[in-house]
Amino acid sequence: VIGVGGCGGNAVDHMIEKGMTGVEFIAINTDAQALRRNRAPVQLQIGNSATKGLGAGGKPEIGREAALEDRERIAE
């Protein structure tokens, strides 16, 4: 399960909290602080150049730019 952004990270946290098993949890976010609070064992901060470690502010175009910036790391 890959949670992207704040909402996706919240969904991953909820699934972990409820004890969901049999899947790998990954959280991807531009917001470094939000990632530190997330429970996913695999975390990837993206778009550091675009957002300076802050959130995308709910703006899809900023999220897209962040994802494109780190597309190779995401693919790994």
Automatic annotation (TrEMBL):
GO terms for cellular component: cell division site; cytoplasm. This is Cell division protein FtsZ. Gene3D superfamilies: Tubulin/FtsZ, GTPase domain. Keywords: Cell cycle, Cell division, GTP-binding, Nucleotide-binding. One of its GO terms (molecular function) is GTP binding. Residues 61-76 have a biased composition (Basic and acidic residues). Residues 49-76 are annotated as: Disordered. Residues 1-76 form the Tubulin/FtsZ GTPase domain.
